[in-house]
Structure formats: structure tokens, C-alpha cells
Write a structure and sequence with these properties.
The complex is a heterodimer of chains A (about 80) and B (about 180). Chain A has about 80 residues and is mainly α. Chain A has helices spanning about 5-20, 25-40, 40-60, 60-70, 80-84. In chain A, helix 1 crosses helix 3 and helix 2 packs across helix 3 (about 40-60). Chain B folds into 2 domains: about 5-95, Rna Polymerase Sigma Factor, Chain: A (Orthogonal Bundle); about 115-180, Orthogonal Bundle (Arc Repressor Mutant, subunit A), CATH 1.10.10.10. Classes of the chains: A mainly alpha (about 80), B mainly alpha (about 180). At the A-B interface, helix 1, helix 2, helix 3 and helix 4 of A face helix 1, helix 3, helix 5, helix 6 and helix 7 of B.
């Protein structure tokens, strides 16, 4: 039976996911991330799990997007204008 | 300038050595490279395509001996390709939900999911279990696509805290969805 990542590994993987998306020094971050993926085969599996989930969420349909935005990301209606 | 036969021979040996090195990198790092690209691109197909393109560009290098680390260079090429791809197409208009669902069906990840209505429901339940700031940061960054610094500004948090909340939400949701789907 294939091993699956535990919760701690998923948290680590998610931390790497955010770091790789927003790093001022992507080369250094990538090097450290590669080392981490080689420490245990499940680390890369966990990272793939997280990346898959994020990819899927980013492509949810507009109805779901609007519902969730209003349910979870409450903010003033003029928010978008203010931050731009 | 004409090259001597011995130069041609040396070049040929060097070229073969480079090709062998690239082949080794492909064997060892292709999966990681695709995963790396996937955290920047929404589509597995895009990530696979750009990973292949990055390897081809690495293979076509004229002077590989001038590069300190081919692996680091490969990931730099891939980063630039992903940046260019995102510049030329808006993510949401480029990838449909159907494409994303298809990605999951062809994924090599051992525990595959067919994402659908039930998973949307499970994810929503998982988000409700989280602190408000955590689910808000997740929705704004992952679902709505705002950069970390924009979310940070809107939520009056540091970028670092936004990343922390987003990471927590991702890990929690993934774990909860997997747990809910266990027989």
C-alpha cells in the first residue's frame, strides 16, 4: 500500500508552496526546497498534493468563487478600489 | 574559422557529456520541476509543457561548461518561462474548470482525486473549521488570485502572516478532504 503524507508533512509542503510563490530570492528558496524534497519521497508527494489542491481551487467556477468570497473574505465593497 | 579534427572530436565528446548530464537531470528532477512549476501555474498541462521546454533549452546551451550548476540553471529557465506564460495569459481565462479536473485524472500522484461537487462541499466545510483570518487569506490568495502583498494590505497583516495563514489553510483543507474521503 502506498504511503501517504501525514499532516505535519502537508503543513511543511504548504509552507514551501507559499515560499516558492513569493520569494525575493527564488534561486536560494528553490535550492532549499529541492533539498527538502530529497529528504523523504513523501515530501514531494505532499507538495504535489498541496499544489493540486491550490490549482483546483484557483479554477473553481464563478458562482462558487462569489459565494466563498462573500462567506470567507468579507470586506468593504470598495476594497478593490482602495488598494489599487 | 576552420576547426581541426581534434577540436571537433573534443566538441563531440563534450556535447555527449552535456546530453548525458541533462538526461540525468531529467531522470532525477523532472517530477520536482513539474511540481515547482505547478505552484506557479494553475494547469498541470502547462507545467509539463514548460518543464519540457526548460529541458530543451538546457540541452541547447552552447556553453554549458560556463554554467556553475545546471540544475540551478534549469530551475531559473523554468521560473522565467512561467513568468512569461503568466504575463501573456490571464490565468482564469486560460484554464477551465474542466481542464483542472482532467489534470487530476491524469495526475501521477498516488492518491488521486476526482474533484467534483462533493469535494467543493468538503472544502467549504474544512474552511469553516478554520479561524476567520486563515480562511479569508486562503480565499483571497488561492481562490481570487490576489498577490500576498495585496491580501496583506487588505487584511492589515504582514506578508509573512498572510503566507502563514494560506499555508495553514492549504494543509488543513488537504488533510480534511483526504480524511473525509477515506472509506
Amino acid at each position: 500500500m502506498a504511503r501517504v503524507p501525514d499532516k505535519n508533512t502537508l503543513y511543511e509542503a504548504a509552507g514551501w508552496w507559499t515560499r516558492l510563490r513569493d520569494s525575493s530570492d527564488i534561486a536560494e528558496a528553490t535550492e532549499h526546497w529541492l533539498k527538502w524534497t530529497r529528504e523523504d519521497d513523501l515530501n514531494l508527494v505532499a507538495f504535489e498534493y498541496i499544489a493540486e489542491l491550490a490549482s483546483w481551487v484557483s479554477t473553481l467556477d464563478d458562482d462558487t468563487r462569489q459565494h466563498w468570497a462573500s462567506e470567507f473574505a468579507r470586506r468593504p465593497t470598495s476594497w478593490r478600489q482602495r488598494i489599487k | 574559422m576552420l576547426r581541426r579534427p581534434s577540436d571537433i572530436g573534443l566538441n563531440s565528446v563534450a556535447s555527449h557529456a552535456h546530453a548525458a548530464h541533462v538526461a540525468e537531470l531529467f531522470r532525477d528532477d523532472n517530477r520536482a520541476l513539474i511540481a515547482f512549476l505547478r505552484c506557479r501555474l494553475p494547469s498541470l498541462a502547462d507545467a509539463q509543457e514548460l518543464a519540457q521546454e526548460a529541458f530543451l533549452r538546457l540541452l541547447a546551451l552552447e556553453h554549458p561548461e560556463r554554467v556553475d550548476s545546471l540544475r540551478a540553471y534549469l530551475f531559473r529557465i523554468a521560473t522565467n518561462l512561467a513568468t512569461d506564460r503568466l504575463r501573456t495569459c490571464r490565468v482564469r481565462s486560460d484554464v477551465s474548470a474542466e481542464q483542472a479536473a482532467e489534470d487530476f485524472r491524469v495526475s501521477s500522484v498516488p492518491e488521486r482525486h476526482v474533484w467534483g461537487v462533493e469535494q467543493v462541499r468538503d472544502l467549504r466545510l474544512a474552511l469553516r473549521e478554520l479561524p476567520a483570518k486563515t480562511s479569508q487569506a486562503f480565499v483571497m490568495h488561492v481562490l481570487e488570485g490576489w498577490d500576498f502583498h495585496v491580501v496583506a494590505h487588505a487584511m492589515k497583516l504582514s506578508d509573512r502572516m498572510v503566507r502563514y495563514h494560506v499555508a495553514n489553510a492549504l494543509a488543513h483543507c488537504r488533510a480534511r478532504i483526504d480524511a473525509l474521503e477515506m472509506p
